[in-house]
Write a structure and sequence with these properties.
325 residues, alpha/beta, seven-stranded parallel beta sheet, three-stranded mixed beta sheet, 12 helices, 12 strands, 42% helix
C-alpha cells in the first residue's frame, strides 16, 4: 500500500509517518512538504536510513498543481492523507490570506490531482475548531454545526466542505478526521505545551491568554495517528470522524502542571491580553470512531503530558535551532 502524505515534516504528519512505518511493514510512504517554518526535516531524522525504499521525500508545495501532478504520476497511490496546513490561530489573525491559500486552494489542488490520477482514498486531517466554542456542558459530535471563530478554523471548515463535495459530486472516497488538541514530541514551539516547557526551562515568563480558564481536550499525537490510520483502513467514504481522548483540562492547569513537573515557580506565569475570538471550550465525542473504526486512545493525558515534558528536556538539540525561526 503506497500512501502520499502531505505536510509530513510537520508535527502530526511526521509522527504519522513514524507510526505507520513502525507498525505496518508493507506501507510505502511518499512525503511531500513545502518546508515552511513549521516543516522541519529533523522531525524525520533517521527515517530514510531505517526504512529505505519504503520512504521517500519530495519537496513541493501542495498549491503547485504541476508539481503535485508530477508526484502522483510517479506511483499508483492508494491514498492521499492531507496533513499540510497553516495551523496557528494567532498567525491566521495576522495573515488570513496565507491560510486561505494553503488550506483551501491547496486542498482543492490535491483533490483535483487525486481524482485525475485515480487515487482511491483521500483523508482530510481537520480540527475540532471548525465547530466553534462550547459552553460549560456537552461535546461536539460529527453532526454539530460548523461555526468557526478564526480565519484558521474557517479555512479548515472550507476545506472539509470542499472535500465532502468531491465525494458527493465525483465519487471520490473522502474521509475527514477532526481531532482535539494534540501534544507530544516534535511540536513546533509556538504551540501552548512546547512554548511553556521551553520558556520554563529558560526561566522566561509563561504567557497565558486572558484568565487561563479556556478548556481544551488534549490527546497524545500517537493516539491521533492511530485513529487516522484506522480511518484510512476502516472509515466509510463521505464520513467525518471526531478524534479525542476525554482529556479536558484548563489551559492554566496545563501550565501549572508543566511548572510543577520542572520544579519551576508559578510566579513565571504572565497573564496577557486575550486572543481575538478565543474559543472558550472544546470537547469531543469520539464514540463514532470507537464504534466504527475500532479505535480508542491508549495514553492517559496527564502522564502523557509529563512524558512530553521529559522529551523536550532530553532533546534541546531539536528545539533550540527552531527558536530563531
Amino acid at each position: 500500500m503506497r500512501l502520499l502524505v502531505t505536510g509530513g515534516c510537520g508535527f502530526i504528519g511526521s509522527n504519522f509517518i513514524r507510526h505507520v512505518l513502525a507498525h505496518y511493514g508493507q506501507a510505502m510512504i511518499t512525503n511531500v512538504d513545502a518546508l515552511t517554518y513549521a516543516g522541519n526535516p529533523a522531525n524525520l531524522a533517521g527515517v530514510a536510513e531505517k526504512y529505505g525504499e519504503n520512504y521517500e521525500f519530495l519537496h513541493a508545495d501542495i498549491c503547485d498543481a504541476d508539481k503535485i501532478d508530477a508526484v502522483l504520476a510517479q506511483h499508483q497511490f492508494y491514498a492521499v492523507l492531507n496533513f499540510a496546513a497553516e495551523s496557528h490561530v494567532d498567525r491566521s489573525i495576522d495573515s488570513p490570506g496565507d491560510f486561505i491559500h494553503t488550506n483551501v486552494v491547496g486542498t482543492s489542488t490535491l483533490l483535483n490531482a487525486a481524482r485525475r490520477h485515480k487515487v482511491r482514498r483521500f483523508v482530510q486531517i481537520s480540527t475540532d475548531e471548525v465547530y466553534g466554542s462550547l459552553g460549560p456542558e456537552g461535546k461536539f459530535s460529527e453532526t454539530s454545526p460548523l461555526d468557526p471563530s478564526s480565519p484558521y478554523s474557517a479555512s479548515k471548515a472550507s476545506a472539509d466542505l470542499l472535500a465532502l463535495a468531491y465525494h458527493h459530486t465525483y465519487g471520490q472516497e473522502v474521509i475527514i478526521t477532526r481531532c482535539s488538541n494534540n501534544y507530544g514530541p516534535y511540536q513546533f514551539p509556538e504551540k501552548l505545551i512546547p512554548l511553556m516547557i521551553i520558556n520554563a526551562l529558560s526561566g522566561r515568563p509563561l504567557p497565558v491568554y486572558g484568565d487561563g480558564l479556556n478548556v481544551r481536550d488534549w490527546i497524545h499525537v500517537e493516539d491521533h495517528c492511530a485513529a487516522i490510520f484506522a480511518a484510512l483502513l476502516n472509515g466509510q467514504p463521505g464520513q467525518v470522524y471526531n478524534v479525542g481522548s476525554d482529556g479536558e483540562m484548563r489551559n492554566i492547569d496545563v501550565v501549572k502542571m508543566i511548572l510543577a513537573h520542572l520544579g519551576k515557580p508559578e510566579s513565571l506565569i504572565q497573564y496577557v491580553t486575550d486572543r481575538l475570538g478565543h474559543d472558550r471550550r472544546y470537547a469531543i465525542d469520539s464514540s463514532k470512531a470507537h464504534r466504527e473504526l475500532q479505535w480508542k486512545p491508549l495514553h492517559q493525558h496527564e502522564q502523557g503530558i509529563r512524558d512530553t515534558i521529559d522529551w523536550y528536556v532530553a532533546n534541546p538539540g531539536w528545539w533550540q535551532p527552531l527558536l530563531a525561526k
